[in-house]
Amino acid sequence: MKKFLFLLACGAMACGMAVAAETVTVTTVTEVEAADDYTKYPISYFQIGIFPGFPAAMERSQVYGIKTGWPMCSGYGSVCGIEASWLGSLTAHFKGIQASWIYCQNVELQGLQATLGVGINLEKMSGLQAAPVFAYAGAVKGVQASAVNVSGNFTGWQPAAILNVAEDFKGWQLSVILNSANKVKGFQTALINVAESGGIQLGLLNFMEDGFLPVCPFINFSL
């Protein structure tokens, strides 16, 4: 079952990334970070981006204010404020609101990431990630909302129209079809719920290795 869920999650993630790949070229934001300290980058208060890497000054900067992409903007640095683009908002470090019609990506986020397509957080986020097609995040404290949500360790609320996959989970995992997590402290609510241990499951079928029963209809919980 776990292998099946892992493959299903990978397939969902691949589909979401394929949607983004048709419209944008994603900037890899992790390669430079090991060598560079983004907090030492030059400061600006307003920037306009054309495509990832152009203009070049956009890539290594700290923006306190507004950064906007016509159609895309990117950067290894940071934004404290608002980043809004037509196709893709891709700055690595973020405090504030990151928005785009199609695709958003960051390494760390404090605030809101909102798009009508695919939202990606590579390492950690605290706040709200909203992407109707697909959402991926690292360690999460807050809310992740999409048709398909995939995350690392999660604290908060994870609502999905189709599928949720997380590692250790604290809070409420809510999906129409499937929820999957390792250790759960809280609730899983879906047609099918899967966990290794902990929490309360409400659904048509509930799988929990250390639950009242390994497989139980309607409700299951850890003893």
Plain-language structure description:
The chain is mainly beta and 223 residues long. Helices cover 9% and strands 62% of the residues. Strands 1, 2, 3, 4, 5, 6, 7, 8, 9, 10, 11, 12, 13 and 14 form a 14-stranded mixed sheet that branches. Strand 13 (200-208) and strand 14 form a beta hairpin. The longest helix has 20 residues, at 2-21. The two termini are 22 Å apart. Residues 2-35 have low confidence and may be disordered.
Quaternary status of these chains? single chain
Q: Provide the structure class.
A: mainly beta
Rg computed from alpha carbons, rounded to a whole number of angstroms: 19 Å
Number of helical segments? 1
Strand-and-helix sequence, N→C? HEEEEEEEEEEEEEE
User: What overall form do the CA principal axes indicate?
Assistant: elongated
The averaged pLDDT comes out at 89
Helix content: under 10%
Report the sheet with the most strands, covering strand number, pairing sense and barrel closure: 14 strands, mixed
The count of β-strands is 14
Which key phrases capture this entry?
223 residues, mainly beta, 14-stranded mixed β-sheet, 14 strands, elongated
Question: Can you give me a brief rundown of this structure?
Answer:
This protein has one helix and 14 strands, in the order H-E-E-E-E-E-E-E-E-E-E-E-E-E-E.
